[in-house]
Design goal:
228 residues; mainly alpha; single chain; Helix Hairpins
């Protein structure tokens, strides 16, 4: 029982901040999981010890009370024997009372010792349960923190990869952009050429119409208008 309490006290006195720091340094919660497993194993042993010692306390109290009642009964019987003049019976009852009282004292001492041990086990169990609850909460926060750290590391690696490929990527993009600009320039030039051709055709048509009108006016003035 002493060795169990020693192990439990060691777990209770464990520095949780140190455990968390170690987990962060190793980028793993393995050290905390190991501590939790040890706590849970010792809690199970502790619970069995509490039940065992608690049962012993009840047994000792019951025996103590039984012999104490028997001693009280013997004490009454001695008075009765003396009142009846039965000193031989009173003497035998007194001897039995003496041994019974010694048993009562022995059980009382054992009960007191066992109660102290039982209380120590109960206190250790409560403290260890509280420690377990705290470290489990710390583990949840640490898991979230490590996941965030891993996500950031992935992002950093991705950005670094992009930086490493930036030169190649920029050249490809530039070539693609230049090709697109060339196509736009060609399309624009073709559009301008077609527009120029159209304008020229329109100009030619307009010029011919103007010339025809001028000639018609001149023929009319000269009386050379064509007869329908």
């Amino acid at each position: 029982m002493t060795s169990l309490l020693d192990k439990v006290q060691t777990l209770i006195s464990a520095n949780l901040h140190w455990l968390v720091d170690q987990a962060l340094k190793q980028n793993s919660i393995a050290v905390i999981n190991q501590y939790i497993r040890e706590v849970e194993d010792n809690l199970e042993d502790l619970s069995e010890a509490v039940a065992t010692v608690g049962g012993q306390v009840k047994t000792l109290r019951r025996k103590h009370d039984e012999f104490q009642a028997k001693a009280a009964e013997l004490d009454r019987n001695i008075d009765l024997f003396l009142q009846e003049g039965r000193e031989d019976l009173a003497r035998a009852a007194q001897s039995k009372l003496n041994s019974t009282q010694r048993l009562v004292e022995t059980y009382a001492q054992q009960l007191e010792q066992m109660q102290r041990e039982y209380q120590s086990l109960m206190d250790a169990r409560l403290k260890l349960e509280a420690k377990l609850t705290t470290i489990k909460q710390e583990r949840e926060q640490l898991e979230a923190l490590l996941e965030l750290a891993k996500s950031k590391e992935i992002t950093v690696r991705a950005i670094k990869s992009l930086d490493d490929l930036a030169g190649v990527g920029d050249a490809d993009v530039a070539r693609i952009a230049e090709s697109i600009r060339e196509r736009l320039d060609r399309a624009s030039a073709e559009g301008e050429m077609r527009a120029a051709t159209l304008d020229r055709q329109m100009d030619e048509i307009l010029d011919r119409q103007q010339l025809d009108a001028q000639l018609a006016a001149r023929k009319a003035r000269l009386g050379l208008a064509s007869k329908e």
